[in-house]
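Late entry, adenosine-5'-triphosphate complex.
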Amino acid sequence: MVDTPSLKPQVFFVLGGPGSGKGTQCAKMVEKYGFAHLSAGDLLREERDSGSETAALINQCIVEGKIVPVEITCQLLKKGMEKQGWAAKRFLIDGFPRNQDNYDGWSKVIGDSVDVPFILFMDADEDTMIARIIERSKTSGRNDDNIESLKKRFATFRNETMPIVELYETMGKCRKINGLRGIEEVFADLETVFAGFI
Ligand SMILES: Nc1ncnc2c1ncn2[C@@H]1O[C@H](COP(=O)(O)OP(=O)(O)OP(=O)(O)O)[C@@H](O)[C@H]1O
Ligand SMILES: O=c1ccn([C@@H]2O[C@H](COP(=O)(O)O)[C@@H](O)[C@H]2O)c(=O)[nH]1
Ligand SMILES: [Mg+2]
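Prediction complete; structure with ligand written out below:
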């Protein structure tokens, strides 16, 4: 467990398939309400591009749509949270925990050092998400924004991440958002869900 001051940070995990709008909505929460946003995927891409000893493993996972071992991701998230200032913060952690290994690793390293009031599940159908990612691929420069990687990312999402969404549902801690509407309409729903925290 990490050593925390008395005031615990609040962490809201944001889950959803590739292209469901996690990053887009988190950016709006940062802009309007000053939440701190950590995208696990962005942190992993940054670590890969730094050329560290884990770079090759991270890149292989990204291209194959597989999930990076939690020891790597959790350390990046912990460092990111500390960098932002740990205490009295509201963190949106985007794209994590993605499987049981992620969930267990987070529980072990961070666990009760933070409060997780609820998670967001950005719900959208695959055809919509594929169309968004193919459009994004024109400018993103991401080496997993292509049909081959995307199919694998969807399979991982269905098989490994959805059980984590369901786990939070059973705890009464999952807030499902219809991600199919326009960006502003989706954001209005987030504002409703976050009432009391904004
Ligand atoms: N509600 C929306 N309607 C239309 N387009 C959207 C909507 N939300 C996001 N987009 C667009 O879809 C693309 C993917 O969105 P975003 O990057 O937020 O998804 P993500 O869930 O973070 O995906 P990934 O898991 O691949 O990082 C972006 O180009 C974004 O501008
Ligand atoms: O916790 C995580 C988050 C991400 N990954 C890997 O990164 C890619 C891209 O993630 P995005 O959220 O779409 O940016 C994802 O497919 C995984 O390969 C991870 O392993 N663990
Ligand atoms: Mg994203």
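The pocket of LLZGTKA7 (ligand 2) is lined by residues 18, 39-41, 44, 61-62, 65-68, 73, 95-96, 98, 102, 144, 153 (CB under 6 Å). Will revisit in the morning.
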